[in-house]
Amino acid sequence: MFLTHLAVLPILVPVTGAAVGVLLRNYRNVQGAWTFGTMLTAFFFSVALLYQVWTTGEALVFQVGGWEAPFGITIVADMLSATMVVMSQVVLAGGILYGLGCTDKCARYPMFNPIFLTLATALTGAMLTGDIFNMFVFVELLVLSGAVLTAISDDRFGPEAAYKYFYISLFAAIFMLIGIGSLYISYGTLNMAQLASLIEANPNMPLLPVAIATLTATFMIKSAVVPFHFWQPDFHTAAPTPVHAVLSSVVVKVGIYGFFRMTTLLFVAQAPTIQSILLVMGAFGIVFGGLGAVGTYDAKRMLAYSTLGQLGFILVGIGWGTPLSLAAAVIYAFNHSLIKSAMLMLAGSVASRAAVKTAAFTTIQGMGKEMPFAGILFLLGGLALAGIPPTNGFVSKLTLFRSGIEAEMFGSLAFIGFASLITVVYVGRAFQRIWWEPKMPDIKMKPAGDRLVAPTILITLCLLLGLWGEPLIQLADMTTLWILEPSNYIEAVLGSELIASGQ
Q1: Which of 35, 44, 85, 430 has the fewest Cβ atoms surrounding its Cβ within 10 A?
Q2: Whole-angstrom Cα distance, residue 115 to residue 403?
Q3: pTM beyond 0.85
């Protein structure tokens, strides 16, 4: 019984912690310790959940309220969802830890920590739910949490960026509801396992193409896939650093998770068409995001544009659609989350030393000379982002390029290989301006800024996974084997008897 409940604990722990955090709003230090302890507890249960699923090779399914699928709310922890949850919660824990040592005024607001835990709840729930409508509910909770955390930012553009994100997300919500409605009208269910079974049996329903198109658009907006990216640089740059570190690393992975489910579970027969679109969009995003990062004026904005390019590599892996390329996409998503969150924290830490907190290169130029340890961390993170050994980024790109060679995708492989060199340009340019060029004479630095504990831990993980990447590679391989057999998911949720009856 406990093992079954283990599937829902990564959701219950942060949402309960958020409620208690509201009661502790007048005790800032206690609330901060409680928030971080809550996130660590949730992460512990997530790791335990992944270990259980990995070692047994079976998904854990929790039926909320005792209502059996497909009639009730189903929580499903399979290899994909459990891996994505561990990836998300390690970064969320890092974000909260950074927030505890952050100098932003908004990080000291009484509701900052509870809303951060609400965001963690929403992100975790979106990846563990087995019902597509409940995914919509969790995603909308994620939007509200992220918008509020950005609106209260010290940055004067925070409210504007939050409004942009909120209204753009309304379009995504409309698209998703149209897709959900089309599926329900066609198949009479919203349980993803039953949907997968019914779509496979009857793929010619007239509204199925509408559902595929609108869900594809939804997940592209959620992951800021070019050309659906226009809200992302403003929104992510204006957010407080601990929030930005989460938004640009793991929150954007909701769309990536959605594409995995679309191509390997819900729409297997239609997957080649979806994958072709993702391949084109991914390749274009690599170039666009890289060039945008090169041409920007702000370190945090540079890293926001970088996310567009890095997500492009993941989409290419999904687009190629081979077992090795899907495993490479999982590895890339996991490693990118660690790298990007650490890099954003480091940029925020440098910006926090400025008289007026900003990451504009004209302000922080040369300030890194007084922050040598941050420079070492940034250099290591930059090497990882560019895919240079001995970092985890090298493991990501090596696996992706191997999958391209195996799939004989030489044209697209050469294109993304050349485009990936852009990463070296913008990372090197940022490092040079912050740590090598002379400081502007009229710029004064504060004696202290944001603490470096969280990015130090994350960069250490990047090095560990670069020097010893075998566990993550094995995890990705097993995840790929699992998702390429959708019957595993369907049977885990519905049971063999229900499948046999054709329900």
Answers
A1: 44
A2: 40
A3: yes
